[in-house]
Structure formats: structure tokens, C-alpha cells
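User: Hey, quick favor. My workstation is busy. Could you predict this chain's structure for me?
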Amino acid sequence: MAEQSTADTQTWRSINTIRTLAIDAVEAASSGHPGTAMALAPVGYTLWQRYLRYDPDLPVWANRDRFVLSVGHASTLLYSLLHLSGVKAVNADYETVGDLAVPLEDLKAFRQLDSKCPGHPEYRWTSGVETTSGPLGTGIATSVGMAIAGRWYAATYNRPGYDLFDYDVYALCGDGDLMEGVGAEAASLAGHLRLSNLCWIYDSNRITIEGSTDLAFSEDVPGRFEALGWAVEEVDDANDLDALAAAFDAFRSRTDRPTLIVVRTVIGIGAPGKQGTAAAHGEPLGAEEARAAKASYGWPEDAQFLVPDETYDDFARGVRARGGAARTEWETLFARYAEEYPDEAEQLNHMQRRTLPDGWDADLPTFEADPKGIAGRAASGTVLNAVAKNVPWLLGGSSDLAPSNKSRLTFDGAGDLSADDPGGRNLHFGVREHAAAAVANGLALSKIRAYQAGFLIFSDFQRGAVRLSALMEIPVIHLYTHDSIGVGEDGPTHQPVEHLASLRAMPGLIDMRPADANEVVEAWRTIMPIRHEPVALILSRQNLPTIDRERYASASGVARGAYVLAGDPDRTPEVIIIATGSEVSLALSAHEELVADGIACRVVSMPSVALFDQQDQAYRDEVLPPQVTARVAVEQASSFGWHRWVGPEGRIIAMDTFGSSAPLKDLQTRFGFTPSAAVAAARELVGR
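Assistant: No problem, here it is.
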């Protein structure tokens, strides 16, 4: 092992502590990836000890530097750093609870049930983990959102003499991250925005699970990033601490573009017989190889989870001392700032706790009954602007579709976020759907109230990042328009059929498909206070009749997921028609015809299956009385999932094929989305 640096003996003792903790954790679990953590220990040590501005006593400090481990399989590297730094655990209210985020006992229980050291880092499960990582490419894409957020904070809240926000974002990535499309999308966007506070550290070890990267990856990575507008630094040996420091210094001096540091490593270095092999990447070393690796580090071969006191002291003198001093200085600065700029300080406090200012909903509109109505997307655009004026940290954008999905903030001062105006509130993601969702996650992790918008059909491209929104329990608003075969002439390539069922199947994601403009208002009223769940807000392209709320029930029932829209709520109906979105007006037409024929009919609008499912059984039975088995569900999407709500005797009018290219009215007739079809199904069920 080449130790080219002039670093002192204690530095290498600390680095080797990280390495041996990684070896022992993976050996104890008989599962995991030790090689990358071993090879990158000098990189992690140098960054944390010399550069990362981070206070382990308050790992949610707003101006901390962020460290993202995009190579999530190397999680023992991060867990070792969190343990040695003494990072404190933080509860859901963002108050430190005093215990270590990663006790040594949890590292010993790596990948075991309830350990704070799961196989891949998980946000909210382990304090100090900035984002859940594992799906390659997504971590670095998320880091772009964090960097955008940092520049936005500075542009929005810094004042002369008060540089509150100037944090940097570091992300450690590998060959897999750079092969994935989402990583390429995010790198392109970061270069375009000239995110000089963003540094990706590329572990160029030339190994993937199948073997050498020569099998599938031969591009000129430095050349690609230079073409994308990045600066590139190269370190030929990860053990050369002086070269690493020079690369980090170059990044920190740069103000015009993001930086890629290419670090060449030999995976599993110090493990004789497995250097540079896929086995060292994806398997425990085994007892013999583990002993040999420790011997190569000058470590006691039989020691298990050994942490010398000197190593704890080293980290106390390094990241703990620097970070604690920086945070204390920042808090003193913020206290003065709050006296001079109380409104801005209050906004920052709301953001940190994910709460809303008084009067945030004061300007929400009410839409008058109108048979011609308004498209869901258009109503949402109006409501979004009404909310965003009163919540200055609500921002987002679209994947090149803002004019179509009405996601643009149009009030004075909203502005476009760009390299030259990082404080704008309209983001332009370009045609980069997957990165858009991941970047929105990064914004939300930085406590910005973020939304990203696109067509529902393209949620397929975003599924990995949307799933991470749900897994991390962060309140990203995923705004989707063109929600059904109502897209019409664009045809089946643009007509989402299975997407609603797919999104509803995702744990922790709230679906919201409003039926008219006033349900859109109530959807936003419900969404904004949510602190720990993402929402898929699903909106129509076509106009939807604005329901007469004097004749039918108030739209306030949206907050409970489903409600009795038509029919006497105190009378047990003969038949229930359940519908969402654009099909609710169809259900109301069918209801009127059935009632005119003497059939007691109830219409239930179910804009959110997830929220309805969260209600107590008494409310669900009140809306859908169990004794009423004559039920018809109507939705221009897959029938999958609707059997739960209509039961074995019910009928479902839905899509079980792809759509077709034709005008909307022709499609509705072809696929049975007409009042007469709903009436016929209801009559059949009640035998009349």
C-alpha cells in the first residue's frame, strides 16, 4: 500500500480504524461490500477532518456542509465516520436527543434487524445520513438539489454582513453512479447552473459487480464532465492525502462551476488475493483475508471492532472542534440577524420545522359552479400561485412542460432560477424527468417546500426517485397532469393507464386526483401542512365541470380521502357509484338518472385512496356502508386495486387495455366512460 502523504502516524491510525471497522462489520454480518469502504477511507477521513463544516452535536444545523454517500453499498464508510465523529441522534422534531446516532454496538449489528446501520444508508433512520442512497445515480442527483437549495438560500436570505448560507455539498460516487442515466441528467443540469458549491468525488476503481468496467464502460469521464461545464481534478492514488487536499482546495477556491474530483483506487486494497476483484466489492473478505488485510495496515490481526482512544481524540480535535466552533459562530450571527431581519428569520424557522406561516391559505380561491368548468391543471396553477405568494419557500418547476401543466409561478418577483439568478423560484429541469424528481428530493431534504411537475405518463421515468421520497418520508409534491385517456389524440404512448394503480401501490405516497376546481383547492389545502409524506397530485388536461356545491356536498371532504358527494348521507342507498377525477361528473349524471327512476343512489368522490385508507373504520363505513354491496367504480385507468372498494359483487368501469389515438368523446364511448354505462351497471346490480 502506497502511503504517499506526509501525514503523521495518528492520521493513518484513524484511517485504518475506518478500514478495519468496515472489515469487521461486513464479516460480522456475513454480508456487504467492504472493498470500497476500505479503499476510500483516506478520502472520507481527509474530507471530514480537514474540510467538512459539520457539527456532530447538531447534524441538522442549517448551514452545515452536506456529505452524500451515493455509493450506498459502501455504507460502512459513512457509519464509521458518523461513529468516530460522535454524531448525535435527532428526533422527528429536529431536536437532538443526546445519544449517538451510530453506537459501536449498532455497527457490530450491521445489516441486522433494527440496527442503525442498515445495508444502505437511510435518511430519518440514522441521523447524519443526508439522503437515502442505494439505487445508483440517485444520490448524486439528489445532491444537485441540495446544492441548488444552498445557492437559493444565500440569494434569498443573506444580507450585507450576514452570510448565513454558504454551505458546500460533497457526494461520493462510483462507476455505477456515472453509468446510470439519472446521474448524467443531474450532471448536465449542475453544469448548466454552474453550481460551484457542488463537488462530486468519483471513486474510479474500474470494478463493478460483473468485473472490470472494461466490459461496458470505456468513456472519457473527465472529458465528459469538462464538456458538461465542470472543472475536473485528478488524484492518482487515494492514499495520497496531500493530493486529496490540493483537489479539495481547488474546489473550494472555485466560484464558476461544479467540480469533479477523480480519485483512483484499488478496491479492497490491503486484502491479499482479492485486490481489484468483484469478490472484494460484493462479499465479506473471509477470516483469513480479513487477518491479512489488518496485518497490511499494521493492525492487530485478531482485534474486532477496535477503536483506539487516540482515534476518538483525533476526530474530537478535527471535525468536532471545527464544526462546533463554526456552528456556535453561526448561531451568534443568526441571533443578530433575527433582530435586524425578524420576518426572514421567522421564515427560516418555519422551514427548518416544516411548518407554515399564519394566513398561508388566505388567498385560496373559490370557484363558482360552471358546467363548462376548468381543467384540473389550470385550476391547480391558480391555486399554486395563491399559495406560493404566502409561502416564500414553495418553489419548483417542470420537465420542460410548464406551459402545459400550468406549474409556473407567475406573480411579480417569482423569477426564473438560473446560474445568474439562483434566487428565482421557477426551476427549469429540462427534459430530465428522473433527475427532476431526485433534485426535488434534494430541495426537500434542505427544507425547501418543493414541487416538480410533468405528465403522469412520465412518472415511469421518475419511479425510483418518487419511491425514495416515500421511503425518506419527505413532503415533495409530485404534480402530474394529462392524467388519463383524456389526453386523446396523442394516443396510448401518452395516455397513462396503469400509473394510478402503480403510484397507489407505493407505501407512504399520498395519491390525490381531484374531481373539479374546488377539489383542487381542497387538495392543496390538505397537501401543504403535510410534513412527512410525498404527494402525487394528479390533474386533468381537459376541462372538468365545476360541481354545484349548493346542490352537492362541500369539497372539504377531500381532506379525508373520500366523502359522500351526492345522495342523502343519512339514508342507506341501494347503490353506490365511486369515482375519482374527471369521472366524478359522469357519476353525478348517472346518479341523477337513477334517482329520477326511484333508485336510491349515492356518489362517493374518492380523490385519495391513501387518505381514505387512513381514516378510522367508522368513517369508512359511514361513506361506504358494508351492507351495501351494489357498488360501481368508475375511473379512466386500470381496474387494478378497485376490487377492494367495490367488493366481489361490484362492477368496475375502467381500462384493462391501452388506449387509442382519437378525440376524447370517441374514446369515452369506445371504452364505456359514459353516464349510460354507469347507469346500466347500477341497474344490473340492483335488479332494476
